[in-house]
Design brief:
Elements lengths: L3 E7 L6 E7 L2 E5 L1 E5 L10 H6 L5 E4 H6 L3 H6 L3 H5 L5 E4 L2 H9 L8 E2 L4 H4 L13 E3 L4 E4 L6 E4 L1 H11 L3 E3 L11 H28 L7 E6 L5 H12 L5 E4 L3 E2 L3 H11 L6 E3 L5 H9 L4 E3 L2 H8 L1 E4 L2 E4 L31 H9 L3 H27 L3 H12 L2
Parallel strand pairs: 4-5, 4-16, 5-6, 6-11, 7-14, 11-12, 12-13, 13-15, 15-16
Antiparallel strand pairs: 1-2, 2-3, 8-9, 9-10, 17-18
Helix pairs in contact: 7-8, 8-9, 9-10, 11-14, 12-14, 13-14, 14-15
The structure holds one RNA strand of 71 nucleotides.
Length: 409
RNA sequence: GUGGCUAUAGUUUAAUGGUAAAACUCUGACCUGUGGCGUCAGAAACGAGAGUUCGAUUCUCUCUAGUCACC
């Protein structure tokens, strides 16, 4: 077994739990937030800085690394850990999300989270002729991608994705799936789900054959991904199907409406085998993290802290602020006095004022993105850590209430 | 000193005899398995004076400022 998951304590009256996930590169204390390092780098941060945010695990991306610098090259360097100089646990995403982001969503105003639960929009007719040419096209066998870097054509199958991920060498990898657009209708969601299920089995089969070919024992842990959009019947069917396969853990994928994401996660986690870890893919705003933890999610990853950090939108205990705003130009105080990160509570005499951070972003200085990413990652990672300890000492509900009250004040 | 040219938003540039467009900046909003990207909304200008005209930012003159050439 490549990983070992143990539940330490469960949250009474809900699906939540706190535990540990042991990997060949160290232990992850769950629930945990996974830092996103798409191209074998958490943008703007050195591995040491990543560590200083409290991060225990980094997620890289199969599709991006396959294109650049190529999985074979990463393998020749001894795998991702050595290549990027990160010694802790790692995961790779399968490239399934790029089926969505470079396919249905490409060039459109479609995001992973739908703002309004507008049925007319959610169940819109699948438009066959799109004005913007897609970079990804789906067939039963796999997905053909047109590289966004040089236009070259690449065909990714479940087998290919698993092969690439074995070459990259993360501790935990994902099955190849199709993340559907929230705008697809029921018929398409169903069709896509059946495809994702077939791909899950193929991913699993190829994973096992690669391990066998490699002499047996060592290999990454493989997570299967549950899809099904917003449809209760499809979500539950997917959880049953994927949960019944011999995966080491599970991902919950797809696009959601903010309002009903909790229901979808709950449907799924009530069905998935509880002794295996669950990863809610691509989710990471504070409210959503509480929702996920309560509903039995062990791992999260999200670009929000780093992407927002590079843009100047910073998390504080009193909500998000755009540090570029004029009101911070002469603000000598720390970003968030209640935060223990290296930006807000520097060890010795150094101090980063709101005014200085404001200046860095306005001047387009690189240090702004670095400090913002450090702070935001610390904030989100620490938030999930506090959720974990509040599960362990039985104060989760109080903590959630107090945090959200101040966060929304 | 003489002659030419120029003067439009904070900046750099458009257009037009019927009160003016854009980019950057500026004021905000947005970003959920990442193109350090980008999207959206908003604020903001005809150097001054006179003349021609129904009407002048536009044409004419004077002034002022800048710029180039010559002395």
């Amino acid at each position: 077994m490549a990983i070992k998951f143990q539940i330490e304590r469960e949250l009474s009256g809900s699906l939540g739990r706190a535990g540990t996930l042991e990997t060949p590169h160290g232990i992850i204390h769950t629930p945990a937030f996974v830092s996103v390092g798409t191209k074998a780098t958490v943008k703007a941060l050195t591995p040491e800085q990543i560590k200083n945010t409290g991060a225990e695990v980094v997620l890289a991306n199969t599709y991006h690394l396959y294109l650049e610098p190529g999985d074979e090259r990463v393998k020749s360097f001894g795998g991702l850990h050595k290549f990027m100089n990160w010694s802790g646990p790692m995961m790779t995403d399968s490239g399934g999300f790029q089926v969505f982001s470079l396919g249905a969503a490409y060039g459109k105003e479609l995001s992973k989270i739908t703002k309004i639960a507008d049925p007319s929009r959610m169940l819109a007719e699948r438009s066959l002729d799109s004005e913007v040419p897609r970079l990804a096209n789906i067939s039963a066998e796999g997905v053909s991608f047109r590289s966004h870097l040089d236009g070259s054509l690449h065909f990714i199958t479940p087998e290919k994705s698993i092969e690439i991920q074995h070459n990259l060498g993360a501790d935990m990898i994902f099955a190849f799936d199709e993340c559907t657009s929230p705008a697809e209708d029921f018929r398409y969601q169903k069709e896509a789900l059946e495809r994702t299920h077939r791909w899950a089995k193929r991913s699993l089969d190829h994973h096992h054959s690669l391990i066998r070919a490699n002499g047996g024992i060592r290999g990454p842990a493989l997570f299967g991904i549950v899809q099904g959009g917003r449809e209760e019947s499809l979500r539950k069917r997917s959880a049953e199907f994927i949960g019944g396969l011999d995966f080491d853990g599970f991902g919950i994928g797809g696009s959601f409406a903010k309002e009903d994401m909790d229901r979808a996660v709950k449907w799924v986690n009530e069905i998935l085998p509880k002794e295996k870890p669950r990863h809610l893919l691509g989710i990471g705003e504070p409210e959503d993290l509480f929702m996920g933890v309560e509903n039995g999610v062990d791992l999260f990853d999200c670009v929000a802290p780093t992407r927002n950090g590079r843009g100047g939108t910073l998390y504080t205990s009193k909500g998000k602020v755009n540090i570029r705003n004029a009101e911070f130009r002469e603000d000598t105080g720390p970003l968030d006095p209640d935060c223990g990160c290296p930006v807000c509570q520097p060890a010795r005499s150094t101090q980063y004022s709101r005014a200085y951070l404001c200046h860095l972003y306005r001047a387009h200085e690189m240090l702004g993105g670095t400090l913002g990413s450090i702070h935001n990652l610390y904030f989100i990672i620490n938030l999930v850590k506090r959720m974990r300890s509040s599960i362990l000492d039985g104060t989760f509900t109080d903590f959630k209430k107090a945090f959200l009250k101040e966060y929304h004040s």
